[in-house]
Here is the input.
Amino acid sequence: MTRARKSRKTLTGTRIFVRRGNYRYESLEPIINPKTGVLQKTHHLCTLDDGEFKAREELQKLLGTVNQPKGIGDFGAWIDKFKIDYLAERELKVPKDPVRQKTWKKGTQNIESALGVIADKFADFDVAQVRGFDVAQFLARWKGRRSAQTYKTYLSLFFEWGISMHGLVDVNPAKQISVKPPRKRNVTMSDVQYHAIRDALLVDEDGKKVRNGEMVQCYMDLLYLLFQRGTDIRLMRVDEIKPEGIAIIPTKTENSSGLGVMLPITPDIQRVLNRIKAISKMRSTFVIHTEHGQPYTASGLRSAFKRAAVRARVDGLTLKDIRSKASSDAKKQGYSLDQLQVTLAHTEKATTRGYIRGQELPVSTVAISLPKR
Here is the structure.
């Protein structure tokens, strides 16, 4: 009988292991330690207190990847250095909540991916050679898509870093390029569609009860009643519900504007919260949770909604449309744009306006007759 293998913690995508309070790299073949000149497989990188990105930086130095970028220009070397600085600063803002850390880690991976695409495209450029035209040509590949905005943002941040920290350029060539935003979604969810999908969450194609249907119904109702993004409802904790209301600082803005909102607990919200308690099979840290007390994944909730929409024979709607429906319904009931901006925790009124669907057209009072012969 073989002994059970003991798992060892590693950093994703590397051979960096955690050993006795230190990050250590274990190479497949012995390589020379540049500090000692000794050929060895195991190399000390830094302590755990120094952090994960410091470990990755030391590994890059060890393997020479920072000084040997792709392409013939110096762009790759500089954007590697920018990435190290940018992600090290980002690491200081990591949420304390382990569940939110997963979302944060996914965001970090997306940033690394975007910077990788940029590095590949401009690998043969020197930083000082990049013109606005080059940036525009690069972004044209994603015209009308959100990716174009993302790549422009990171290119602009990189050049600003190059100007302020290293004097690489005098002008930011990305800043002068305008990117057409993606076409705004203009889908309106009706009351009939809302309830059709909501009802379909309970019963599958065979007429059998869906095990998690009631909880997902509650999630859908809180999306509507609280006006917040899916992530903030999905990860909302029980201890965030106070007698005076529910204090929410959106994940999207907690490290930028920090704008939040205190939402009063209306009778409808209280009824949903009471229902959650009634159907819960165990106590959980999270308001919306699985049978095991864990928060649902975003993909899991999207899939449940999508399957219910198919059963309800409703096309073209997503969970995100519920927030727009709530905003539009509130506007129709007489709430002002200023009130909705506070509720949605938006920094700009234009953003709030984009959530209103089916706005009433102004009525013209001008009427004329046909011209006389």
